[in-house]
Design brief:
4-stranded antiparallel sheet; alpha+beta; 19 helices
Length: 548
């Protein structure tokens, strides 16, 4: 104690005491600063919690508001939902909770409606059996995450909190996908005005285009099963959906807005094209745009360009000008069934006519013994017919069509055409042509060159076994290089000779690759045949006028 007392009262002790007092004062100030910072952190965390709670409440309020509107107008979204009880309708709407995770439901009600619509449009809608986070799961997990920073804060001391700041930040929770959608929900041609209330329910030309574009987009999605697109199903769905909305649209006004005919406008329904995807986006934006918006005319111009590109595509298909669409590097080649469907609709444009032929192709594939057509398997008779090793399978059916009155053939009866599932069409050679080849055992040197006269309904009054056998022989002789076929397409009311389509498919390798050479398989019957009649001995000894 004496030594300590001396130190505290001596000259040196006075200096030490002063230093210690200064250190103590600094320590007190630091403690005060830390305490103030600690209190300030608490204030900030409470403010952050209040902001997050406000954001959550705004999302939930907007969600419930749109849910209520959906329940009250369910029949306008889907006629099948009109009489469903509220609880069932809530289940239909429930998957929309998946969009609570972002900022879709944040903002003024009219802005939220636009964002909900955009989210559905961009995603393609909610699909059946899609997992989602329920509104209850979202609410509980979000509330827990909002509360956690303050809960951690309350367990800290003012002098230990600094090392814990990183744990006090709000963290977006990991939500469980605890529910599964019972039914799909998406924008359709029918419910378009419900998702775009800003359009005022007025059927403008732009809205008509948008509806039909969305109709096509949805039909394409429905016609794609396990990643495989069925263009015929696509066409069937489009026509069915169009029949549901046709009374609510004004085709004439829409066609006039874009400077096209009503007939051309209807091609939006009849077939697809590479332009339709972008057209759906542009016209949807146009349909919901203020009429005084400075960008409106630019969108009208782009829509018109896309419409005309769509029409040009279909017209080119009809005219057989397919080279730029059907090449080995073209994305369209990968969708040959779509091209084939477009071609068949152009050639057989009567109501349901092309679809009927498609159904016959399917029936023949399922039952190769059917008399309504021919099912040619892969590598057809490759052990006998040179060049068929690697040939793709193909189905054929028969159709009788009116002859061109200018045709010089003796018979004016309807002639038989053979229609391939690839869209290729050729005339069925006459009975005389095939009989001559049969009698000569296929030796073309012993027969005269056949005419282009085709078989008619006078020869075969309906698809039957005799017609099928006749067609099989024609295909076989063509594959052997002994018979050139006449390939045709529709022009006006009749069919005219045209090889463009078959040549384009051949160049693109659509018919297969030869397993030995790797070269594209050539289609049968496209090349001129040389050698007819070269083995015929002319009898001049009995005075027959040979014309030579």
């Amino acid at each position: 104690m004496g030594i300590l007392s001396d130190l505290l009262t001596g000259p040196i002790g006075e200096v030490g005491y002063g230093a210690m007092a200064e250190s103590y004062e600094r320590a007190n100030k630091k403690a005060d600063d830390q305490a103030a910072l600690f209190r300030g952190l608490g204030v900030d965390l409470r403010a952050e919690r209040m902001a997050n709670e406000k954001n959550l409440n705004e999302k939930l309020s907007n969600f419930r508001s749109i849910e209520l509107d959906f329940i009250n107008n369910a029949g306008k979204y889907n006629t099948d939902w009109a009489k469903l009880p509220d609880e069932d309708l809530k289940l239909l709407f429930a998957p929309m909770a998946e969009y609570l995770k972002g900022d879709t439901f944040v903002g003024k009600p009219e802005d939220v409606q636009k964002k909900v619509t955009e989210a559905l449009f961009q995603s393609g809608g909610i699909k059946v059996d899609s997992p989602y986070t329920s509104v209850e799961e979202f609410t509980n997990q979000t509330k827990a995450s909002i509360s956690k920073p303050l809960e951690l804060y309350s367990g800290l001391a003012w002098n230990t909190w600094e090392n814990q700041v990183g744990n006090l930040a709000y963290k977006t929770p990991e939500y469980n996908m605890d529910a599964m959608s019972a039914e799909g929900l998406r924008i359709t041609a029918m419910n378009f005005p419900m998702f775009y209330p800003s359009a005022g329910g007025i059927e403008t030309p732009a809205m008509t285009i948008a509806k039909l574009s969305i109709l096509s987009s949805n039909a394409k999605a429905d016609a794609t099963i396990d990643g495989v697109f069925d263009p015929w199903k696509f066409a069937e769905i489009k026509r069915e959906k169009f029949d549901q909305v046709k009374d609510s649209i004004n085709i004439t006004n829409a066609a006039e807005l874009f400077g096209i005919s009503e007939n051309d406008f209807m091609k939006l329904i009849d077939s697809g094209s590479p332009s339709l995807s972008r057209l759906a986006q542009v016209t949807t934006q146009l349909a919901t745009m203020d009429i005084n918006d400075p960008n409106r005319q630019a969108l009208i111009n782009e829509s018109a360009r896309l419409l005309n590109a769509h029409i040009e595509f279909l017209d080119n298909m009809k005219a057989g000008l397919v080279d730029k669409y059907v090449t080995k590097d073209s994305a369209q080649t990968k969708e040959l069934p779509k091209i084939a469907m477009t071609i068949m609709n152009a050639n057989f444009s009567g109501e349901g006519e092309a679809y009927k032929l498609h159904k016959q192709h399917v029936a023949v594939l399922e039952n190769p013994k059917s008399h309504i057509g021919i099912s040619m398997p892969k590598n057809f008779q490759s052990s006998i017919i040179e060049g068929n090793d690697g040939r793709n399978s193909e189905q054929f059916t028969f159709v009788a069509v009116a002859k061109d009155p200018s045709d010089q053939a003796i018979s004016k009866s309807k002639e038989w055409l053979v229609v391939s599932n690839t869209g290729i069409v050729f005339k069925l050679p006459s009975i005389n042509t095939i009989t001559s080849l049969d009698n000569a055992d296929g030796d073309i040197t012993q027969i005269r060159a056949p005419s282009k006269v085709s078989a008619t309904i006078d020869d075969f009054n309906m698809p039957n076994e005799a017609l099928k056998v006749h067609a099989v022989k024609a295909i076989k002789y063509a594959m052997e290089g002994k018979l050139q076929l006449t390939f045709v397409r529709r022009s006006g009311n009749y069919f005219i000779e045209d090889n463009n389509y078959v040549n384009a498919l051949e160049k693109a390798g659509v018919f297969g690759k030869n397993n030995t050479t790797g070269h594209n398989i050539k289609y049968f019957g496209t090349e001129p045949v040389e050698g007819y009649g070269t083995g015929i001995v002319l009898d001049t000894e009995i005075g027959i006028d040979t014309g030579i």
